[in-house]
Amino acid sequence: MILGYLLLALALVATVAANVLFTLSRRPGKESLLRAARGAVVVAAAGVVGASAYLSYLIATHQFQVAYVAEYSSLRSNEWYLFAAFWGGQEGSILLWAFWTALLGVVLAFRGGQRTSRVWPIYGIGLVFLLGLLLLKCPFAVPKGVPVPPDGRGLNPLLENMWMVIHPPILFLGFSSLLVPFAWAVYGLLHRDWDGWARAAFSWSLFSFATLGIGLALGGYWAYETLGWGGFWAWDPVENSSLVPWVFVTALLHGIAVQNKNGGARGMNIVLGVLPFATMFYGTFLTRTGLLSDFSVHSFSSLGQDGFYLLLSGVLLSLLVPLGMLAWRWKQIPKPPTYERVLTREFGYFLASALLGLIGLFTAVGMSAPLFTKLWIEKGAAAQPEFYNQATYPLGILLTVGMAVTPFLAWKSTDVESLRRRLLLPYCGAILLTIGMAGAAWYVGLRRPWQLLLFATSIFAVLANVALILPRLKHRSSRRSTGGFIAHAGAGMTLAGVACLVAFQHSQERIMLVRDNPVDAMGYKLTYLGQTSHPFDRDRNALRIRVEKDGRVWEGRPRFYIAPFGGKDTEFGNPPAVLPSLYNVRGVGDIPKLFPWNNPFAWGDLYIAASAGPQTAWTGEDGRPKHPNSGFFLKDQEARTMGDYTFMLLSLDLDDKAKETLKTGNPTAMSTLPQVTFKAQVGVDWKGQKQEIVTPEFVLDQRMGGKFSKPVSIPGPDGRKVLLTLLPPSDEELNSTKPFEALAFQTMNAEDPTEHVFVDLSTKPLIGLVWIGPVLYTLGGLIGYRRRAYEMGLIGAKELPLPDNGTDGEDPEGGEESADAAPPAAKPQKPAPAGPMRPKPAAKTATKPSA
Amino acid sequence: MKPAGWIGLVIILGAMAFSAKAFVTNLTPYVTFDQARGAKTASVQVMGSLDKTSIKNQMGGLKFDLLSKEGDRMSVVFEQAKPANFEQAIEVTAIGRYDGATFRADRLLVKCPSKYQGTETKEYGAAQKA
Fold first, then answer.
1. What's residue A588's pLDDT?
2. A222 has which bridge partners?
3. What confidence tens digit (pLDDT) does each residue in B92-105 have?
4. Which terminus of chain B has a smaller tally of CB atoms within 10 A, N or C?
């Protein structure tokens, strides 16, 4: 749609204009242009926000002539999934990326301090790139010569859950924020402002750390909750391409902490400032150009050749140009005297940066394996998850040791004696407790030395940091400085949780459950009770599994999806997919999980995944039921053959009272009736042998507050019965004045004694630790962000003075960045006092060696 | 060099060596069906189109046949949960090893004509049940 293109083009032009204006404003006497430049930034952001609003509008109003809308939303989607359809596909997610990038650009333009006019153009180049990509792969494209589909395809049912609404915006906020530290690093390199950039980028990298970190954790939780394979991290290229930038940005935090303290690690920090954004671009390139499509889970569809080259040039530009220039200028970086002692905080931080950098490097190498192994293996080879586990495991152990030890070490300048006196007691306490807990873990069965070691060092990290947090909670001012400790405690918790999970989880696969026959598995008694009739959600269904242990009873409901892909009309002749999904029992129907002493699942989950939907003894040779075991739609007077059956919808009838009410012509009057009954008359033919007319019903009951189906039985093989259910329509359809276009039905076995399902059962002990960890490190990151942002004033109050060697414009290697060529605004600045920055570990990472 | 530098260097070099070894031992090359039959011990990955009439999901696991472009047939056994959307798969990549009669897959990558992202691949298999 043309308006969308126009808004994006406006944003592109405004960004370029902002770049030019910022650059011009650096000339003496032209400072007034700064206002205009900021105005242009706002216009660019308005363009992108407008385009986003327009896309939302197109989706909400079902403009199916737009390919993107038809692809990712449908008339059946509820408002949340219509909202989520925005980023359901490739184009929309790029728009989401541009959306946050443009908004953060506004923040940078107004809060960048006196360096804004130098740093923003670099940021602007990134934004131009993104907008260019977006115009190439545009969500507003209207295919030519294709009839407008009556309904869209909608999101995959596996994606239709809350996480699809929450996860992508947070993750992309994290992605977008990486461009800011990148721009600062390139700025620092370009203008030889070796310390100023790092100070300015500190709070931003904390922000990236927190947002990207929680985005990653949410992705893991989502996978755990909906995919059903039982884990949360699979080292898939798509996962890795968000992990690598996060690990690098975490390394950057620690590097900047060192640099702010004593001016060390300047060169390394430039590299670490460039890498998060560059590797994210690289990851995007790998996963979105189809390069890894034979090696990855969810590889995105190809961006096409133009997109390929645009992304490739982006990768090269963002990686090679800054790094090449750094090599060129390496000798110009002022080097402070290096640290001499091992037991200093500087060294601990430096080591943390190095270890995190290695984790990032190894992961990046692993995910690139399919490309570079083609050098010696004909079709390439993929690195298996074990590679990542093995390569990062020792680094994880070293990191946790560092997290426990480093905060207790002194910066060179601190008074060692007083520190020792203050911290000796809590530290010894932490060590003793760690030994105690590791002993307990050993006692209950954590015997493998490496697992025990990771567990012990992680617990040590948790306890040591808790020991540091507690005394700081007393005063408001000291509470602000707990961010790093909280983050480290969280990281330790996640790793301890992973160690426990790997050591203690048990699973039993393919447990066959015949209806109503209890089966003992792993100390639980499982009984398959049948399926939920699920009147509220026509796309989903669940198996009812009763779980008994120690005289208490729960019911777990592993879902499986009956997916009428393609909406009401199309693609529905095939037997629809039954997608197994997982379920974890959460004390359904008995004791809330809140009371751990009552609930065996409180310390972990019991994870039940349906590995195959209901089958019966008369399942066909191909493993599929001989009758259609799922849903289908029928239009009035339409016949449809499904398996051995032919169905025909003869009529749809309402009860008399409802009919009268309907005649009044007031659609809302219907909802005032206490009860409304819908009856469908369906002709059923089974293999041409038996014919019957049946009338399945559903009832809307105001008092009961729900919709209830009354299935009918129809003839099946071997004299058995099959249930035909009329599925209630959605609220949306009910409240609409339009007549029903088609009715949804579902068939399933009627109490067939041979009906059986297969489930996979596993325990996930202490998995709660894995989830609490990310919450804590995100919280820690945000506390740190707030503190740094405050310290920096984000208004430029405590900035370092601009370097006086800023002879910009003499950098032939600046590439595109040569737009920056202009003499500096020669404002002599008084050296601002380098604020008394309390040392504080920023935030460390947790790798998840296993799931 | 100062002691701190030495310690850092040793850790970094040690980690590099360790990861290089892990990398080499955990590579699974893409191979043809014939090569997979030959490499009986090593973990490899094979790809083929799914013969939908061959799918059996029963007690012993999910069994199906893959067809290579050349028409070669490989039967595959996967003992974990049947992947979502499996019946609609066009191509399947199986990662595992050939045991003399069938290909025993530890993991599957299932490529479906997807609603989500054009062609979508999904991975199944508890890859790192340690």
1. 36
2. none
3. 889 898 888 889 99
4. N
Beta bridge pairs of residue A508: A761
Instruction: Report whether A842 contacts A181 (CB < 8 A).
Output: no
C-alpha A542/C-alpha A190 separation (Å) is 59
Distance from CA of A576 to the nearest CA of B (A): 9
Say which of A231, A369, A622 has its CB closest to residue B128.
A231
- The pLDDT tens digits of the residues spanning A810-823 come to 333 333 433 333 33
Q: Do B115 and A156 touch (CB under 8 A)?
A: yes
Residues of chain A found within 8 Å of residue B11, distances taken between Cβ atoms? 351, 354-355, 398
CA–CA dist B114, B91 (Å, integer) = 12
pLDDT tier, A741 (very low <50, low <70, confident <90, very high otherwise):
low
pLDDT band at A746 (very low <50, low <70, confident <90, very high): low
Contacts of A617 (CB under 8 A, 6+ apart): A752, A754
Chain B residues touching A72 at Cβ < 8 A: 115
What pLDDT does A721 receive?
Answer: 62
Interface with chain A: mutation pick from B117, B119, B120, B124, highest number of A CBs within 10 Å: B117
Strand order through the sheet with A721-727: A631-635, A742-749, A721-727, A712-715
Could you say which residues from 526 to 565 on chain A have a Cβ atom under 8 Å away from some Cβ of chain B? 561, 563, 565
What pLDDT does residue A723 have? 67
- Within 13 Å and on the Cβ side, how many CA atoms surround B82? 30
Of A137, A295, A371, which to mutate for an interface test with B (greatest number of B Cβ within 10 Å)? Answer: A295
In what order do the strands lie in the sheet containing A604-615? A507-514, A756-765, A604-615, A582-585
Please answer yes or no on whether A228 and B126 come within 8 Å at the CB atom.
no
Q: How far is B74 from chain A (nearest CA, A)?
A: 17
**Distance separating alpha carbons of residues A260 and A71, to the nearest angstrom:** 50
Per-residue pLDDT, averaged over A403-415, amounts to 75
Contact residues on chain B for A397, CB-CB shorter than 8 A: none
What are the structure tokens assigned to A169, written together? 């915006």
d(CA A461, CA A768) in angstroms, rounded, equals 18
User: What digits encode the pLDDT tens for the residues A165-197?
Assistant: 999 999 999 999 999 999 999 999 999 999 999
**pTM exceeds 0.80 for this model:** no
Task: Report the pLDDT averaged over residues A301-321.
Answer: 83
Q: What is the DSSP letter of A665?
A: T
What ipTM goes with this model? 0.80
Tell me how far the alpha carbon of residue A456 is from its chain's centroid.
29
